[in-house]
Design goal:
With 446 residues, the chain is of the alpha/beta class. It is built from 13 helices and 20 strands. The chain folds into two domains: 339 residues, Rossmann fold; 99 residues, GMP Synthetase, Chain A, domain 3 (2-Layer Sandwich). It binds 5'-O-[hydroxy(phenylacetyl)phosphoryl]adenosine (DLL).
Length: 446
């Protein structure tokens, strides 16, 4: 037993000083959370007009917050509040103490701004070290960081975390896939960080130029920033011969490193000493029963520059019961398949893109590249799912293609209860992204 602990994927974490709070007794954690919640509430009440106003409206003062159990007395923060207070309205530290700004890309309108004091950057580094250690990485690992560097939090967040872990970091950023593959091979890279969809693209391209990634030293991937399914994880692990770990985070809270998987690969541990999680009913805002699905709400307990009280993430998940095989005491959430706002309704049925992904990956001969287009003709909604098929199949007989098309349509219909049109398309015909994949194109309102 002790041998496997010393050399298993969790050994690195257990012996890394930054990870000590991962195993803290719950009672001790609660005391720490209570203390930190009181501090952060005082901080925002004193320094952020928005929070003082919201708390005054609810008739809550900092002295009403005595322990972490009082968190539900506090107001929620919505994405629209961040937009209203754009750019600096929610800062709780003077600009002189703010050493970094990031922003989310934001598809419409103004971006979401994130600010960090030096202390916040240390917190971020701490949770990223713990993330990498939980994925079995340590000094001596060579980490290719293909998350985008720049305003996006993925690049720099992973960069400083991997460096602080003591690993060797290669800051490739996203894109230039042939160069990524050359570096992966020539530098003996052992771990890669990027979105799961971009990694699939890297694998495709590697196969095309005759490189089998399974024969390289690469052994770990730390993938996140977009929803992906268990089926997708299995594909990736098989195709690349690696262990694929999920990492979760959002700009509003800190960036990557809000939660991460350990060797159990069953749910993400939330770094609860810094980010307090609740799960609420997205309609009512009330807590859901233990273990039920709901919207993840996060309160930052230690951030100085831009603390968030009860931030409504819109990400749907559930707390997982039981203890973690790695011995971590931090609560786990189920992987995030979808957001409350990525669901689309077709002919009265609620559909999540991840359900379609699960269904199509159950069928042999497909590649995990797909795109869903919603159209409306004479008041009726249609769903078209384009799916790439393997080159062998694409050049095969027409009857084989038709057969596959029918099986896919059936698998999807069984999962989501609506008929969809499936088109099988050539490998590489669906646009690739070096960051987050765009799964759904809704043309109904155009
Ligand atoms: O995506 C931060 C990040 C960078 C996380 C690198 C992980 C790795 P945003 O651009 O603000 O920040 O997007 C945050 O992306 O609310 C989720 O909807 C989604 N998301 C992030 N990680 C995951 C994941 C970064 N592991 C939004 N699974 C979040 C599912 C994820 N969705």
């Amino acid at each position: 037993m002790s041998d496997s602990r010393a050399s298993g994927p969790d050994a690195a974490a257990r012996f890394h000083p930054a990870s000590s709070l991962d195993y803290v007794p719950r009672e001790q954690l609660r005391r720490l959370q209570s203390q930190r919640l009181k501090e952060v509430v005082s901080r925002v009440y004193d320094h952020v007009a928005f929070y003082r106003r919201r708390m005054d409206q609810l008739g809550v003062t900092p002295s009403d917050i005595r322990s972490i159990d009082d968190v539900d007395k506090l107001p929620f923060t919505l994405k629209s509040d961040l937009r209203d207070e754009y750019p600096f309205g929610l800062f709780a530290a003077p600009l002189g103490q703010i050493v970094r700004l990031h922003a989310s890309s934001g598809t419409t309108g103004k971006p979401i701004v994130a600010a960090y004091t030096q202390h916040d950057l240390d917190v971020w580094k701490n949770v990223m070290v713990r993330t990498f250690a939980a994925a079995g990485l340590s000094e001596g690992d060579i980490v290719q960081n293909s998350y985008g560097y720049g305003l996006f939090t993925g690049g720099l967040g992973a960069h400083y975390g991997a460096e602080a872990l003591g690993a060797t970091v290669i800051p490739t950023s996203g894109g230039n896939t042939d160069r990524q593959i050359m570096i992966l091979k020539d530098f003996g890279v052992t771990a890669i960080c990027c979105t799961p969809s971009y990694f699939l693209h890297v694998l495709d391209r590697a196969a095309e130029i005759g490189i089998d990634v399974r024969h390289l030293p690469l052994r770990v991937g730390v993938f996140g920033a977009e929803p992906w399914t268990e089926a997708m994880r299995r594909r990736i692990e098989e195709l690349a011969g690696i262990k694929a770990y999920d990492i979760y985070g959002l700009t509003e809270i800190i960036g990557p490193g809000v939660g991460a998987e350990c060797s159990g690969q069953n749910g993400l541990h939330i770094f609860e000493d810094h980010f307090y999680p609740e799960i609420v009913d997205p309609e009512t805002g009330r807590p859901v029963p233990e273990g039920a699905d709901g919207e993840l709400v996060i309160t930052t307990l230690t951030k100085q520059a831009m603390p968030m009280l009860r931030y409504r993430s819109r990400d749907i998940t559930a707390f997982l019961p039981g203890s973690s095989p790695s011995g971590r005491t931090l609560r786990r959430i189920r992987r995030i398949f979808h957001r409350s706002d990525d669901m689309f309704i077709v002919r009265g049925v609620n559909v999540f893109p991840s359900q379609i992904e699960e269904a199509l990956l159950r069928v042999e001969g497909t590649l995990p590249h797909y795109q869903i287009t919603l159209t409306r003709q004479r008041g009726l909604d249609d769903v078209d799912v384009q799916i790439e098929v393997t080159p062998e199949l694409f050049s095969d007989r027409v009857s084989a293609m038709e057969n596959l098309q029918q099986r896919l349509a059936k698998a999807i219909e069984q999962t989501v209860n609506i008929r969809v049109n499936v088109s099988l398309v050539e490998p590489h015909s669906i646009a690739r992204s070096e960051g987050k994949a765009r799964r759904v194109i809704d043309k109904r309102d155009l």
